[in-house]
Automatic annotation (TrEMBL):
<dbReference type="Pfam" id="PF00293">
    <property type="entry name" value="NUDIX"/>
</dbReference>
<dbReference type="InterPro" id="IPR000086">
    <property type="entry name" value="NUDIX_hydrolase_dom"/>
</dbReference>
<dbReference type="GO" id="GO:0019693">
    <property type="term" value="P:ribose phosphate metabolic process"/>
</dbReference>
<dbReference type="InterPro" id="IPR015797">
    <property type="entry name" value="NUDIX_hydrolase-like_dom_sf"/>
</dbReference>
<feature type="domain" description="Nudix hydrolase">
    <location>
        <begin position="93"/>
        <end position="233"/>
    </location>
</feature>
<dbReference type="GO" id="GO:0005634">
    <property type="term" value="C:nucleus"/>
</dbReference>
<protein>
    <recommendedName>
        <fullName>Nudix hydrolase domain-containing protein</fullName>
    </recommendedName>
</protein>
<dbReference type="GO" id="GO:0006753">
    <property type="term" value="P:nucleoside phosphate metabolic process"/>
</dbReference>
<dbReference type="GO" id="GO:0047631">
    <property type="term" value="F:ADP-ribose diphosphatase activity"/>
</dbReference>
<keyword id="KW-0378">Hydrolase</keyword>
């Protein structure tokens, strides 16, 4: 794993946290360090002024829903019996017919092991920080392939080349009509490349984490033990890679 040091201010001192694979080193500087002005990373999940919290949960009137709608699906089963199914549907699907993309990233570096990028993001529906693949909606007039490269750059700062994109797949067909495509994007770095800046929208608080592929499965287990929730797509990818190495 490799990450840049994080700088955190307190009233009396400046704390530098330097990360290594399994440990952290904290160096507490004197009060004079307050003279230094380090530009904060706005929008980063680890730089939020406070923790998010749910203040109210109430029924959403259909006329107030901007992103989703409920559907009553009348259908006949295999015996001809009439039935009704309740489902949620996105209101943003464009001409591509695909709602969203998620991105498996492969980072190649001259002196570091092959790695991937995961993101940490608070999700109100589960009231927890979710560990996810970079992902996002496909814009109107945009192809899923173009969306995958764009979303990776916006959420992580990294620019890469699309190597593969899946057929249209679904995550929860018993509840929602939502679909997506899963892209693999390769990022090739040079020895002296610096960590890029994220291009986050207002209201996005996304922490990116670069993880060596060999450590991904164990890292997700650790996040679960910390109380975070791992997204199913990311878990399936990591578990499949882990199984291929240890069980086949």
């Amino acid at each position: 794993m490799y990450r840049n040091p994080l700088f955190a201010f307190t009233k009396r001192s400046l704390v530098l946290i330097k990360f290594s694979n399994r440990s952290s080193i904290r160096i507490r500087l004197s009060a004079a360090a307050r003279a230094f002005h380090i530009q904060p990373r706005l929008g980063a999940a680890y730089n939020m002024p406070q923790s998010p919290k749910i203040v109210k949960v109430e029924e959403l009137p259909p006329n107030e829903a901007k992103w989703v709608e409920f559907q009553k699906i009348s259908w006949h089963d295999q015996t001809g019996k009439p039935r009704v199914w309740e489902a949620a549907s996105r209101k943003t699907r464009g001409k591509s017919g695909v709602d969203a993309v998620a991105i498996n990233t492969i980072i190649r570096h001259p002196s570091r092991p092959p790695s991937t990028i995961i993101i940490l993001q608070y999700r109100p529906p589960i009231d927890a920080v979710c560990v996810e693949l970079p992902a996002g909606l496909v814009d109107e007039g945009e192809s899923p392939s173009d969306a995958s490269v764009r979303e990776l750059h916006e959420e992580t700062g990294y620019k890469g080349k699309l190597k593969f994109i899946s057929p249209t797949i679904v995550s929860d067909p018993g509840l929602s009509t939502a679909n997506m495509q899963l892209a693999t994007v390769e990022v090739n770095l040079k020895e002296d490349d610096k960590e890029p800046e994220q291009v986050l929208d207002d209201g996005e608080f996304i922490e990116r984490v670069v993880v060596p592929l060999e450590e991904l499965y164990d890292r997700l287990v650790e996040y679960d033990q910390e109380g975070k929730i791992v997204d199913a797509r990311l878990w399936h990818w990591a578990a499949g890679y882990h199984a291929a190495k240890t069980m086949l």
